Amino acid sequence: MGRILLSRVAVAALLTLYDAAAQLTSFPLCRGNPAASYSDAGNTYPQVKKALSQVSQYQIATWWTDNNAYHYTEMQKLLNNCNDTSVPTVVIYGLPNKDCGAAFSNLGTNRDADTYVKFVQDLADLVGTRPVNYILEPDAIGLTLNAPCALTSGYLDNMMSVVPLLTGDNNPNASLYLDVGYWALQNESTTSVVVQAVKQLASKGGAIRGIALDTSNYRTTTEMVGLCTTFSAAAYKSMRKNFTCVVDTSRNYIGPKDGSREWCNSKFAAIGVPPTSATQSDLLDYFLWIKTPGESDGPCNTPDITGDALKNGPPAGQFFEKAFSMMWDQGYFVDKKLGDKLNEYAIDGASTSGMSVSWIVIVIVVAVLVFLVVGGIVMKRRHDAKEARSRNTRQVRLLQESAAL
Q1: Rounded CA gap, 405 and 402, in Å?
Q2: For position 133, what pLDDT does the model report?
Q3: How far apart are CA 367 and CA 373, in angstroms?
Q4: Structural domains present in the chain
Q5: Across 284-364, where does the E strand assignment appear?
Q6: What is the pLDDT of residue 23?
Q7: What is the maximum alpha-carbon separation in the chain?
Q8: pLDDT in tens, 182-224
Q9: Nearest to 52 by CA among 351, 324, 269, 336
Q10: Is 108 left (phi over 0), alpha (psi -120 to 50) or beta?
Q11: CA 356, CA 325: separation in Å to the nearest integer?
Q12: What residues does 178 pair with on adjacent strands?
């Protein structure tokens, strides 16, 4: 009888843990902290202040990164702003030698496995057992597919060590999503590698709820639903476990132009659907703004950067007024008539001096027409003058001939 009772208790406990994670999406997202990069942007660029205020009404993920010397106090502030029945979203970005491919975001103080574990443990201690969404290490899994530096830097080993610290018995109310670059799920072979990476990361315990897609990128939500379906099916086949996804919609409203794979400050960035659990898909837990709209990806000035990028931007994480203005004008709020267009820049990134693109086109057309009309008048006058001189010459010649007779 005692064994049966213990078994029932164990089953109930497991169901409680499962339900805790499953029901997080029924809690509202906590708006949390204002974006740090916005604090001075409104004063420096008053033309975008109203748009920044509107964007700030929604949750923007808070980054726990050793690139930021104030990450600890910012996390304390976030947790003070969020109650136990609202869900903050925290991005963990602290791997030693992070961003080893592009090296635009590879600063920070974590130099080895021990400092990384301590870095994540500090976060886990602050959060405790409250509800939270974790996005673990943007770009890390994707880089293990095509950047040898990710393997030599021990990305997966380091991540594997911290999954149990953040989830499972330590916090049954945490939902952990592993960031996966969209390109890693576009064929069967790389999808298989991703699934094996997820399997490895789950091998030391803890609980992985799913993956985060489109972080700091621009691919459409429709495309991400397809990739989530692909991953979930492959993962279930391999691990007999259901995984869900979250999608970063911070700048994916229109998607890139056909054929463009530019990742760095793309001209086609457009602020997307605001954060919500109302995704209309059982596979998608949330639309989130993981990347802060308007924050730079870096200077984007290396040889591999294409003409689809806004080049020579500020360092990664700093506010980029040109990028924000363009993604606002091309994005959700303007399209849904929830905000006014800023009209600061055209799609090519050139300043419009406050005029809309359509007015620029009209001005150019009018200028060309004026040039043609004026040019036509001048040419006609020259032609008429030439004809008059010819007539005068003929008349003089006739008079001279008459006088000679």
Answers
A1: 5
A2: 98
A3: 10
A4: 20-336 (3.20.20.40)
A5: 284-288
A6: 55
A7: 148
A8: 999 999 999 999 999 999 999 989 999 999 999 999 999 999 9
A9: 324
A10: left
A11: 12
A12: 136, 211
- Residue indicated by tokens 């910012």: 74
Non-local CB neighbours of 287 within 8 Å, separated by 6+ positions = 221, 246, 247, 249, 272, 273, 274, 275, 276, 279
The pair of three-digit structure tokens given for residue 392, joined into one six-digit string: 């005068």
Neighbours of 123 (CB within 10 A): 20
Q: CB under 8 Å to 24, separation ≥6 — which residues?
A: 87, 131, 133, 173, 175, 285
| Threshold 0.85, pTM exceeds | no
- Portion of the chain with pLDDT greater than 90, in percent: 67
Mean pLDDT, rounded, for 333-339: 98
Task: Please give the Cα distance from 253 to 102 (Å, whole number).
Answer: 25
Cα distance between the two ends of the chain: 148
CA pair distance 264, 311, nearest whole angstrom: 8
- Report pLDDT digits (tens) over 19-72: 445 557 788 999 989 998 998 999 999 999 999 999 999 999 999 999 899 999
Distance CA 164, CA 57 (A): 33
Residue 357 in tokens: 């693109």
